[in-house]
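ok so I'm stuck.
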Amino acid sequence: MGPGSDHTRPDGVDDLTVEALGTISEALEAVEVARGHLYTFHRLSGTADLTLGKGVDQLREAGHHELADRIEEELVGRNVLEGRWTFQVVEEYDDGYYATFRSVERAAREALVEGKRHLYEAEMKEDRRTHGRAGHEATPEG
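replied:
not stuck anymore, here's the structure
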């Protein structure tokens, strides 16, 4: 048994087209990883700001009011980029570059292979697996 219909190239689609869509999918995967790192940046920056605020409070409690005031005024709640906290950076990335990338990748698949995903990988799997061997099934159903 081979791959399911969701992972079988439509008639008339050439190898180079499947390879090109696979490369574009690979690029989208890199964008997904970058997006994850951006969210990590967002979370860590927020944690740093809240932790810094706690440190400022502790300095103040220890009697270091002037230094606590300076840090609070200069750094606590400061923009990470001009006019932006990290949530604004994330939103701009998501709504702009990320959304456009996903839309264009999907449009290419819809125009060329009926919207099917991962055809390149599905064909690689079919080529590399040992047909008839347990653990090498084409699909969960067999």
